[in-house]
Amino acid sequence: KNRVQNAAVAPLPPALLRVARRLKKLGVVQSVPDACCVNFYGQGQWLPDHVDSKKFERPLVTVSLGSEQCVVFRRRGYLARRIRLPVGSALRLGGDAANDWTHGLPPATRPRISLTFRRLNAETKRHFADETKAIKERRDAKKALKRQQRNKPPKPSVRAERRPEAAPLPSEATDKTPSIELEHVRSVYNAIAPQWHGTRYKAWPRVAKFCLMNCGAGALVADVGCGNGKMADAACRRGAFTIACDTSDALIDIAHTTHKDKRYECLVADGVRLPYRSGAFDVALNIAVLHHLSTAERRVQCIRETLRILKPGGRALFYAWAKEQKNGSENRSGHQFDSTDVLVPFHLREHGPHYNKETARQCPAHAVRDERKNATVLKRYCHVFAEGELRGLGAGGG
After folding, report:
1. Is it true that the peptide bond before 59 is cis, omega within 30 degrees of 0?
2. From CA 76, how far away is CA 100, in angstroms rounded?
3. What's the rounded Cα separation, in Å, for the pair 231 and 289?
4. What pLDDT, in 10s, does the model give residues 328-369?
5. Phi then psi dihedrals of residue 120, to 5 deg
6. CA neighbours within 13 Å on the CB side: how many for 118?
């Protein structure tokens, strides 16, 4: 394409530099070339007629290696001129031959290598230098702006909308599901189910490893609080049969549709009152369920139910959110908790591939509109566990 671009190029390697200096010593060129284009021509390969870019000084010099070939010069109104290029020869192009006549190579009869030595002219060098300087100034300005932005304190609204707030727990003495769970867990997940499914699609690494070690062929697995069924691949990979349940009918619909080709059955059920007979399952998964239960009694009952359905010698895995979150990139949730019972904001985007108008209309009463983000903000209830608290609950549930 005969283009000359402004790009960083390494200096000539010693072998080519020796050839360039030899050309100057022999008087072929006045100044030592600072660039070299190396071309290899296999048998039958050719070079179309062209004029080298005028961004290079004249003369240009081409050294031929490998085999003797010919170069053909053409100009409108003149007869074509064919010149032999013996091995080791140097073809010097200057004046009309470089600027007005085109040159090209017929198909090579044998492999050939050409070394074309040249120098950028002064005007092009100045232009490239100015261009490089302008690019550097723009980059430096962007870096300075980013440094300024990093040093600015975050806007209060941004911090407030992401920070979990303390959850007001009602003092309800009833066997029914507490209202805070109905409003801030079940109703929230029914509303956000399509968007939730779009971002949660596989088991966490340690859960997947547990399944690989325990969910073998013929095993019966209970996935308690399965959500959208993201444990399905890990639980069923080695031939286990899994029965999954969740209180969100919207998430159960998604799990059933997504994993209907697997040995993964889904139903709507509450982990606090599992509809299974005792001692039926080889393995039980209780992942990210306990932190959505608003009383210690219900958490203990959920643990007891999960253990009740296991066969003697069966294995269960429990996972829940921790209050003590790591700092920096290791904090995958991005949250910091000031209280053990919190309402965590979730932005239900009213756009994008996972937006569903039907489920969005079912938003609970507490939902508020965020015009700036074109989203509805819902708040999920979570009880975040202090260090050692879950182990203590497990002892009470066993």
Report:
1. yes
2. 9
3. 13
4. 445 555 577 888 899 998 888 876 666 666 666 678 888 888
5. -65, 145
6. 23
